[in-house]
Amino acid sequence: MKNSIIYIFDFDGVLCDSINECMLTSYNAYKNTQLLYIDEIPEDFRNYFYKYRYYVKPAKEYLILCEAYYKKINLSVSIFNEMKILYKEKMIIFEKHFFSQRKFMQKNKKLWLSYHKMYNHSENFVSQLSSKFYIITNKDYDSVKILSKHFRFNDKIKKIFSKELSNDKKILFQHFFDTVFIEKKETRIIFVDDNEEHLVRLKFFPIELYFAKWGYAKKQRYNSFKEINSLAEIK
Question: How far apart are CA 167 and CA 145, in angstroms?
Fold first, then answer.
């Protein structure tokens, strides 16, 4: 019987809803603008971004959403992957603009924080945890620290494995197992993510994988992983 649990959470789409901030940052990076309010972004672009956000893993892939929107493309996984190859070089340039725009917007900290919200059930679950947990995310370290402090759970985080190490969750988990001492073989290691492709890459690790249905994808294509509607459903 496994009698202890290590919780590991993705950040965006599991603990925090950052979709509006990512959308505004992406739009500004792509259009070379410095808009500050969500309603300044064309409604059609917003709807498109909300619909296809879940295809994106590292931030550079937001370029694909922008390009596909202006080319009036109905995205699919195969088309998205083809575009990643086609725009490989442009994504590298776009990523620099993306994080430059984020730094600019973070200067108005109050406004930048307003683009985010914590999922209620995640906030409740985290606040009631007696042990600390880990974050493994494609988000940048500084943003996770700022937001976790703002939402008052910074002291609950044991360690953050973020995009500065890698944009690949598999590599991030390799860092986790290389650096975190697991005290007992009986320990359950639980990871929650809202991206099925991330979970697929992790299924050979000794961890329990959960798909967050409240995140950006809402559903799996292959229903390979345990689905939960809130963190409280983890058994």
Answer: 18
